[in-house]
Amino acid sequence: MRKGALFTMGTREGDCGDGAGRRKERAMKVNRRRFLKLASSLGVSSLLFGYPVVIERNRVMVNRYRIPVPHLPEPFRGFTLVHLTDIHYGPLVSLHMVRQIVGQANRLKKDAVVCTGDYVHERNKRDQIDRVGPVLSELTARSGVYSVLGNHDHWADPERSRYWLKRSGQDLSHRLRAVERGRDRIWLAGAGDLWEDHEPLDRLLGRIPPEDCRIVLAHNPDTADTDYEGRVDLMICGHTHGGQVNIPFIGPPVLPVKNKDYSSGLKSSPRGTRVFISKGLGWSICPVRFNCLPEIAVLELIPDVPEVLGEAVSV
Predict the structure, then answer these.
(1) Cβ contact 272:70 at 8 Å
(2) What letters, b where the CB count within 10 A reaches 16 and e where it falls short, cover 290-304?
(3) Cβ(254)–Cβ(286) under 8 Å?
(4) 303 neighbors 69 (Cβ within 8 angstroms)
């Protein structure tokens, strides 16, 4: 009886051992599957998180646009502007990157360079201004470099920001410059920043001969909707960063402007003014870009015809 009991007990122990082994093997397989699923999920999450933060945010494009401009004289057909805006030098936008942007802009075939503000990122500091100012002073073009300030430049230190624009000879804030080709000319006018030092545009526009072509540089595209009577043939702006995130079929969920039509590209204001808005180069609020690559915009001006061409080339 004892032997039987011992045998039975032994048999049960043997059964239990084989079952435990199988259960352990199954558990190991389940754990491996869970690990692979977890690793896969983490990989996808890392990719989804890393792409807009690490990859797209740093992939600068050279985007080319053909812009029809009313009252543009025929000798200025093909006049080309390189437009830089919203560099936001500071956290995650290195001075090395700014030098690359300036170098690329200088190598592009163009007639002039226009810059529409937000060259630095931080507030109440002049250090960033003094570091990036000399680099931006290296911009060159045969018909000149023209720059205005953005809200971040005012928030950092408005006087120091103006100092570098004046020292570089690029200052167009509240100023006019005529560019001539033979007997014909176009005018570049610099608007103040809408949030920080806006002045009525008519103070500038009233000094331009009524038949002449007028191109206004303004940081904030909402400037196009302010109260003025004079004609603007083209306004060139930044500020929006294209929203930084552009959701397919929906568009940018956040735009720091009142007129939500002013995202990026060539737009028309309610009064019919042509407004070009660049996606810019840096970031604000959150360091991400999704379906909205940073850009150096190259604007080829042509007399007003119903045609706009855009193409993108990687830097």
Answers:
(1) no
(2) bebbbbbbbbbbbee
(3) no
(4) yes
DSSP string, 132-146: HHHHHTT---TT-EE
Number of CB atoms found within 10 A of residue 127's CB: 13
The answer to whether the CB of 144 falls within 8 A of the CB of 176 is no
| Segments of the chain assigned E as strands | 61-69, 80-84, 112-115, 145-147, 176-181, 184-190, 213-217, 234-237, 265-268, 274-277, 295-303, 309-314
Pick the CATH number of 60-314 from 3.40.50, 3.60.21, 1.10.12, 1.10.357: 3.60.21
Is the distance from CB of 162 to CB of 119 less than 8 angstroms?
A: no
Element (H, E) at 25: helix 2-50
Give the torsion through C-alpha atoms of 297, 302, 308, 312, to 10 deg.
-30
pLDDT in tens, 166-203: 999 999 999 999 999 999 999 999 999 999 999 999 99
| Nearest to 241, CA basis, from 302, 286, 184, 174 | 286
pLDDT bin (cut points 50, 70, 90) of residue 5 is: very low
The DSSP call for residue 167 is: H
Total Cβ atoms within 10 A of residue 54: 14
pTM of the model: 0.82
Among the listed residues 196, 157, 155, 156, the one whose alpha carbon sits nearest the alpha carbon of residue 174: 196
The residue count of the chain comes to 315
Write the single-letter amino acid at 68. Answer: P
pLDDT tens-digit map of 119-129: 999 999 899 99
The tokens 């699923």 sit on which residue? 37
